[in-house]
Design a protein that fits this description.
Oligomer: heterodimer
Distance between the termini of chain B: 37 Å
CATH superfamily of the largest domain in chain B: Beta-grasp domain
Number of strands of chain A: 30
Number of helices of chain B: 6
Distance between the termini of chain A: 61 Å
Strand order of the largest sheet of chain B: 2-1-5-3-4
Structural class of chain A: alpha+beta
Largest sheet of chain B: 5 strands, mixed
CATH topology of the largest domain in chain B: Ubiquitin-like (UB roll)
Strand content of chain B: 5-15%
CATH architecture of the largest domain in chain B: Roll
Radius of gyration of chain A: 28 Å
Bound molecules: FE2/S2 (inorganic) cluster
Largest sheet of chain A: 7 strands, mixed
Radius of gyration of chain B: 15 Å
Helix content of chain B: 25-40%
Number of strands of chain B: 5
CATH topology of the largest domain in chain A: Aldehyde Oxidoreductase, domain 4
Number of domains of chain A: 3
Shape of chain A: globular
Number of helices of chain A: 18
CATH class of the largest domain in chain B: Alpha Beta
Strand content of chain A: 15-25%
CATH architecture of the largest domain in chain A: 2-Layer Sandwich
Structural class of chain B: alpha+beta
Chain lengths: 700, 159
């Protein structure tokens, strides 16, 4: 049975999901006036266009940073429009109010677009049928569609969508449409190959760094070595001797060196003599940070209580069987293979920007304010945000993981272009990229529990602190009668920001490590222990799927050990089993990771598998390889030699099981990250009897 | 400034550039061949990998001064229609995520298989450890290399 979404219901859904313009848009688009014929193309909504040759161009208002959104969102349109997959093209939307607030983060692309893009496809199909019915002078019910064609059920005549666009453009969009049921899906649920793969294997994919604008110069920026230190003076004479260097300029963020090519800019940047002032942040180093965290964690009087169920503190104080641990997680860098870059051309009060950004809307605002108010003492009246003076093109992103949610690089490129009055392509060296990141913040956690006579927790007390520290992902899936979560943020001038899975990363590590400690203390199998404490069927399902696939508790090759962890985040349930052994030097070799995910309906199962593989590798790098430390007010690491990430030979076999589901799709980009760290730490405990209280695991 | 002549993707080029500019930036900024990527500049990430006289090298480490008479192949020269067996295998295994490292991965794999079409797993590891992928596509890269080996040996696909 098909279910029906009326326009009113749809508006209701929209309001429930979010009150932003983006969500209410499709409702507007599916109202009377928006179908039109422009340049001979039929644009029934802002999300798609059909041309005379049946080519359907889907406009994707999310950012493509490797998560496959161009393909999965197009599948939603193709499904309801009933078109041939080969006729689908996908393009990235420029920043424009008509798409609502454009920001890709928090693994929300599928959730945000699931209804609105299928609605757009379904509404378009409906008017194409109406167009055909008009032409044939029959009833709508006497028509059907098949892969881009309308069929006359009485005569078997056929009209392609392309042949119908002119009539369709005069038909108002319907107020209600039927969306398909899961069993009728043709594309959704299939491992459709990604649309962007061909250009990514022949070198033709254009990332931000590959935007060529006529007469553009190349810029790089020297940032303060000590956090927030200011520039007292600088001498560009040595830098300007480098052939090709055209300008050396001060901008808000540092000194920009501009040249005809990157190599000259880079050489010039090394030769600018800068006198830095205001080095008060010199005192910041890793020990200083750790001290501040410890002090803040101990001073519980100042803590905010995030959750308080029962009397966790009292139960623990009065219990004989308790357990206590502290965990520390360091700063982490994003280290996408593509370094920070942005191309800008400011021309009077107009500006055109090409940015690899996760937030086109905010990037455009940044470009606007920098174009129109830079160096102006008078506060500039911001023009209407839908003005045409600023154009922001969103490029393919060569990895982001949260970094390109920031707009610092847009600010820099626009300032430079405005000063030199020429188009400019800003490229950060890797060293600038690692040292000027918005890091994942370090956090310190204290966990205490009281156990009953059977060894199960009756009280749980989690205290945490860090910059931007948050409890997302710390709320327990376990049934424990007394729970307290409390903590306080510390204030430091280190820039921090979202990093793949954000607070779920550290909270899952401490929760899943500590529960494993409790199971070990009580001498109960970690799977059995968890199953006793949960009743959410989706959690039970992923745990059972993963442990049976991984042969949990079964015979393993000699010297191999397994660890288990589970976590829910971004709407999805994940459980993972890591299988490791120890190398001669005591370090960890990960052989296999088995993962089960319940992400609702699997729109593209191959994309889910790819995202799980990517998330696990991302988590393994943080669990086994790199971290960011500070010394003399400066991050110590600068490139992949001292901020290593997982290599080919360190890659485990990853097997992903996707749970069957009829629920709406949930996040897939981030949910795989949080549980891999604790799964490895728990396997390490199984192998050595030693508990990892930090990541990366210190094995020596 | 010295003039150097060398071959890039089968075409003779002559350029007049500073001695120390690395091949990576010669390709990207002076020949506008943008398929080869910058990742670290210090020989640590391999996303800049191209073929120099048939060998996989990290182009960020090769100075212009050493280019006289050499033969360079970039991703653009491998095939533009994805007909190279390594590219075919990459597509069949749906390797790329963000895609930024993939030119380097493919060039490293192609150089390995030119030399040694039946490279063993440890030889594959040795060659591929030089190219990093932050998106974590290694498992698919491994599968794709094995598929390319099959394409080459079973179907006689030309490298
Ligand atoms: S850019 Fe050449 S190895 Fe990283
Ligand atoms: S595919 Fe993104 S870095 Fe490899």
């Amino acid at each position: 049975m098909s279910y029906k979404i009326s326009r009113r219901e749809f508006l209701k859904i929209s309001a429930g999901a979010s009150l932003t313009l983006a969500i209410s848009l499709p409702a507007q688009n599916i109202s009377a006036k928006s179908s039109s014929l422009k340049n001979g193309e039929f644009s029934p909504s802002v999300w798609l266009e059909i041309n005379k040759n049946n080519i359907v161009t889907v406009t994707v208002a999310e950012s493509e940073m490797g998560q496959g959104v161009l393909t999965t969102l197009s599948m939603m349109v193709a499904e309801e429009l009933d078109t041939k997959w080969e006729d689908i093209r996908a393009i990235l939307a420029d920043a424009d109010q008509k798409y609502g607030d454009q920001a890709t983060g928090g693994s929300t692309s599928l959730r945000k677009n699931w209804t609105r893009l299928r609605m757009a496809g379904a509404a378009t199909r409906k008017i194409l049928i109406q167009a055909a019915a008009q032409k044939w002078k029959i009833k709508e019910e006497q028509c059907n569609t098949n892969e881009g064609k309308v069929i006359n059920l009485l005569t078997n005549q056929i009209l392609s969508y392309g042949e119908l666009i002119e009539i369709a453009a005069s038909i108002p969009l319907p107020e209600e449409v039927f969306l398909k049921e899961k069993k009728d899906f043709k594309y959704i649920g299939k491992p459709i190959p990604r649309l962007d793969s061909p250009i990514k294997v022949n070198g033709k994919a254009k990332f931000g760094n590959d935007i060529l604008i006529e007469n553009a110069l190349i810029a790089t920026v020297v940032h303060p070595p000590v956090i927030n230190s200011s520039i007292i003076s600088f001498d560009a004479s040595r830098a300007k001797k480098i052939q090709g260097v055209t300008h050396v300029l001060q901008i808000d963020e540092g000194i920009a060196v501009i040249a005809k090519d990157f190599w000259s800019a880079k050489k010039g940047a090394q030769l600018v003599d800068i006198v830095w002032g205001d080095k008060k942040n010199n005192k910041i180093n890793s020990a200083y940070i750790k001290n501040l965290l410890t002090k803040t964690l101990t001073n519980t009087k100042e803590h905010n209580i995030e959750q308080d169920l029962g009397n966790a503190d009292k139960v623990i104080a009065n219990s004989e069987n308790t357990h206590h641990s502290e965990y520390f997680l360091p700063y982490q860098a994003h280290a996408s293979m593509e370094t920070i870059n942005c191309t800008a051309f400011v021309n009077g009060d107009k500006c055109e920007v090409w940015a690899p950004t996760q937030t086109p809307t905010r990037a455009k605002d940044e470009a606007r304010s920098r174009t129109q108010s830079f160096f102006s003492k008078i506060k500039y009246k911001i023009l209407k945000s839908d003005d045409n003076s600023i154009t922001l093109h969103n490029t393919l992103i060569g990895g982001s993981f949260g970094r390109k949610l920031q707009t610092d690089f847009v600010s820099e490129a626009v300032q430079i272009s405005k000063l030199i009055q020429k188009p400019v392509r800003l490229i950060w060296e890797r060293e600038q990229d690692i040292k000027n990141d918005y890091y994942h913040p370090a956090t310190l956690h204290s966990l205490s529990a009281a156990l009953n006579k059977d060894g199960f927790p009756i009280a749980w007390w989690h205290k945490a602190t860090g910059q931007k520290q948050r409890f997302g992902g710390a709320f327990l899936p376990y049934n424990i009668p007394n729970i307290r979560l409390q903590g306080k943020r510390i204030s430091l001038p280190i820039k921090v920001g979202p990093w793949r899975s954000v607070n779920h990363y550290y909270n899952a590590f401490v929760v899943e490590s500590f529960i494993d400690e409790l199971a070990a203390k009580s001498k109960i199998d970690p799977l059995e222990y968890r199953l006793k404490l949960i009743d959410d069927p989706q959690f039970i399902n992923v745990l059972k799927l993963v442990t049976s696939k991984a042969n949990w508790g079964g015979k393993l090759p000699n010297g191999h050990f397994q660890g288990l962890a589970m976590h829910k985040g971004f709407g999805s349930y994940v459980a993972q089993v890591a299988e490791i052994s120890l190398k001669d030097d005591g370090s960890i070799k990960v052989h296999k990771v088995t993962a089960a995910i319940d992400a609702g309906i699997a729109v593209n199962p191959d994309t889910i598998k790819a995202q799980m593989e990517g998330a696990i590798v991302f988590g393994l790098s943080a669990a086994l390889k790199g971290k960011i430390t500070f010394n003399n007010g400066s991050p110590v690491q600068s490139n992949y030699h001292d901020f290593p990430i997982l290599k080919f030979s360190e890659m485990p076999v990853i097997e992903t099981i996707i749970a069957d589901s009829d629920k709406s799709p949930e996040g897939i980009g981030e949910p795989g990250v949080p549980s891999i760290g604790p799964a490895i730490a728990n396997a390490y405990y199984a192998a050595t009897g030693k508990r990892a209280y930090t990541l990366p695991i210190e094995t020596s | 400034m010295p003039k150097k002549s060398f071959q890039v993707n089968g075409k003779e080029v002559t350029l007049d550039l500073p001695n120390d500019i690395p091949l990576l930036w010669v390709l990207r900024d002076h020949l506008k061949l943008l398929g080869t990527k910058y990742g670290c500049g210090i020989g640590q990430c391999g996303v800049c990998t191209v073929h120099l006289n048939g060998e996989a090298i990290q182009s960020c480490l090769i100075p212009f001064s050493s280019l006289d008479g050499v033969n360079v192949t970039t991703i653009e020269g491998l095939s533009s229609d994805n007909s190279h067996p390594v590219q075919k295998a990459w597509l069949e295994e749906s390797v790329p995520q963000c895609g930024y490292c993939q030119s380097g991965q493919i060039m490293a794999a192609a150089a390995l298989l030119y030399k040694n079409p039946s490279a063993t797993p440890s030889q594959i590891e040795q060659a591929m450890d030089k190219v990093l992928c932050r998106c974590g596509t290694y498992q698919r890269i491994n599968n794709a290399i094995k598929k390319a080996q099959t394409l080459i040996s079973m179907k006689g696909d030309a490298l």
